[in-house]
Specification:
3-stranded mixed β-sheet, CBS-domain, 5 helices, CBS_dom_sf, single chain, alpha+beta
Length: 148
Amino acid sequence: MKVRDLLNGKPAVVTIDANLSLSAAISVMSYHKIGALVLRSEKGCPVRLLSERDVVSVITARGHDVLGQPVHQVAPEDCIRCDPDERLQEVMHTMSRLRARHIPVVEKSGELIGIVSVGDLLKAQLEETTLENRVLHDKALVSTFAGM
């Protein structure tokens, strides 16, 4: 299965302007009940990712005064991304290696088309495993009845 397949039916990605305050970004995350936001540039391109973990780390390191700062000043500069045509196994490996919970999905043109979470990948893996188990179960039943 590819990342593009996983995005079908998912809601649009919540993005914010990179100049918004950290406090406002936290409010947006809380309102939408999400664990990460994609920061966009003035041109609307995805530039960084801000996660709940990032928020906790920056407040712990710099104190509550950081809440009034623009989010682009506190969000990590590195933003891993994945291609919509990548296989889920590759994305799982990348996220596991980097201990990332979210990864933006970006077309080669630079267009943000979605975001994948660890929960999305877990759900897809569970569905695939369940399907495989059903197929194996059905094959075993056919073999049993064919031998009678």
